[in-house]
Amino acid sequence: MSNFFGTDGIRGEVGKAPITADFLLKVGWAVGSVLRESGSASIIIGKDTRVSGYLFESALEAGFLSAGVNVGMLGPMPSPAIAYLTQAFGADAGVVISASHNHFQDNGVKFFSSMGVKLGDDVQKAIEDKLSTPMVSVDSASIGKAKRYGQALGRYIEFCKSTFDKNCDLSNLKIIIDCANGATYHIAEDVFSELGAAVFMINNNPDGYNINRDCGATDTRHLQQEVKDQNADIGIAFDGDGDRLIMVDHKGEEVDGDELVAIIAASWKKAGYLKSNTVVGTKMTNLGIRKALAEQDIKFIEANVGDRYVMEKLIQNEAVLGGEGSGHIICLNKSTSGDAIIAALQVLEVLAKSGKSLNTLKNNMTKFPQILINIKTNTQLDLNNNKVINKAIKSVEKKLSNSGRVLIRKSGTEPLIRVMVESDNLDLATESANYLAEIIKTK
Fold first, then answer.
1. pLDDT of 197-225, one tens digit each?
2. Active site residues per annotation
C-alpha cells in the first residue's frame, strides 16, 4: 500500500484523504495494535490550536481505546512537549495532532516513541501493514481507559527552564514573543518571564482559524515591526506547534535557523559543549554558514531536508547540535527533539554570557543570498529524469560556477516543488531561480 508517512508524520488538507475522522480512527487503532503486541500499552495525545484538533483528538482516542491502549489527554501542547512528556509520564508513545507551520485548513499527526524521538521506519512500516487489515476492536473487558493530565503544562515549563544556565538570567532583556496563535500561546510567557525577561506577547490568542496566519516563524513581518516600535532587544517567533524558531534582532532584522545554529555552535565549541566538534545541517543549509563553521574548525555534516534526517545524522555521529534554516533546531544534549523554546533559551544564554547583541553575533558570519520559490503541483513530476529540467539546471550551475549552487526538491509535507538557488550575487540568484521555476511550471 502507499506510504502515508511523509518526512514529518501524516499531513494534509482536512476532509480530504487521508486527513479524515474515519481514517484517523483507524490510525489510532493501528498504532495501538502495534503497541499492544508487546503487552499492555499507554499513549498520550496533544494537539495544537486548529479547530479540527477537537475532531481528530476524539477519533484518535477512540481508535487507541478500541485497540486496548490507555490514553492520556493533554490538550493544546507543543510538539516537543509531547516528546518530553511521553518520557516523563512513562507512556509507550505520544502523538501530537498538528500540521506544524501550515494554515488551519491542514492538519495531521506525528508520533513519538517512549524515548521521545520520532518513530523509526520499521515501526512506521508495521503501522502501515496494520492499516491494510480490517479494524477489529478488542473485547469489552480489554478496552482502554482515558484520563486527562492536569499537571502537564507546569512540568513542561519547568523542564524548559531547566535547560537554561541557572547562573544566568534575562533581566536585562526586553523580548517580544510571537506564538503564531499556536500551541505555545499559554506556555512561552511563563518560561521567559520566570527567567527574568520583560516579555510582551503577540499572536497569542488562538481562535482555531488564525494559527500561522501572517505571523510566527513563517512570517515575521509583524514581529519585526513590534521589535522596532517597542525598542525591544530581541524578538522570538515560533510556529504553530512550537518546533520552529526564528528570531529578530534589535534592528528588526530576521535571524534564521542557520544563523542561530551557527551562533550556538561557536559558543558551545568555546565552552567545550560541542560534542564531536560537529554540526548537522541539511542540503538547504546556507553556504555562508558552512564557511563560517569551517573557519572555526567545526565539522559540518549534510543531511536530507527534514528534522528526522538531521536527528539521524546527529545520532550516527554522536553530535548534539543540528538544524535547518526554517528554524528546526535540535539541541540533543538538552532535549530529544527539535524544541523552539529550548533553542531560543540556548541563544539567549549566549547573549547573556557574552554581553553581545544578537545583531553583533549574527554579523560574525555572512550569509549567501538564497532565493527560494515554491511551486504548487498536483503532478508526479520525475525531477531526476526530466531532460528539460536537468538541462536548465546544468545551464544555471555553469553560470553560478563555484560561487553558488542549485537545489530542486519535492516537499515532504506539502504538494510543492521547492526551487532554491544560492549565490554570492543576489541578482544572479534571483534571475536563476525565476528561470528554473518557469521551466518547472511548464512541465
1. 999 999 999 999 999 999 999 999 999 99
2. 100
